[in-house]
Fold this sequence. Notes:
The complex is a heterodimer.
Chain A: E1 5-7, E2 10-14, E3 19-24, E4 31-37, E5 43-50, E6 55-58, E7 61-66, E8 71-76, E9 85-92, E10 99-101, E11 105-110
Parallel strand pairs in A: 2-11
Antiparallel strand pairs in A: 1-3, 3-8, 4-5, 4-9, 6-7, 7-8, 9-10, 9-11
Chain B: E1 5-7, E2 10-13, E3 19-24, E4 31-37, E5 44-50, E6 53-57, E7 64-68, E8 74-78, E9 87-94, E10 102-103, E11 107-111
Parallel strand pairs in B: 2-11
Antiparallel strand pairs in B: 1-3, 3-8, 4-5, 4-9, 5-6, 7-8, 9-10, 9-11
Amino acid sequence: SQQGEEDPQALSIQEGENATMNCSYKTSINNLQWYRQNSGRGLVHLILIRSNEREKHSGRLRVTLDTSKKSSSLLITASRAADTASYFCATESGGYNKLIFGAGTRLAVHP
Amino acid sequence: DAGVTQSPTHLIKTRGQQVTLRCSPKSGHDTVSWYQQALGQGPQFIFQYYEEEERQRGNFPDRFSGHQFPNYSSELNVNALLLGDSALYLCASSRTGGLAQYFGPGTRLTVL
């Protein structure tokens, strides 16, 4: 079963715009991770935020975590056509790197 | 440095058959996890291998089994295939104490 849900399920924007994706989860966590997947292939690790962190940046990515609301958001600034992909949040809560994924957000960035 | 590799890329089987998927972890990684991703869904954890033992298991039937070899590579075996086993099977590796997992490109299994 999925840990939580991503919102929206699909997002369509123009190049240069910002894209925001949200993730909610159900149980307490050790960390939350975001992954990107192109065309149904392997997942690429984007960023990890620990449960005691509230915000983290990596290049054009910004992730926030609100453990009181059991939610996270991923912001991609100044989007590019190459950002077109599915984005998944995954939570780790029991140790040993067992990840529980959401259903993902499909992002389409149009030139 | 090669990343995580998986073989084969694609596989077509018929119901009732058995299949073996293979994974080689990233260099320096000793832990291998397997995930099943149905079309349009997020990956679901099948099991994890560490020191040649199954350390954790998700909610999958015993038809799904695995193995880890001394060189840390791993196999996923599925017996008595069902149509619902059609999915992308992803292997991920990590090192002890590491938090990030590195995923392979996946094996697309189609059961007819």
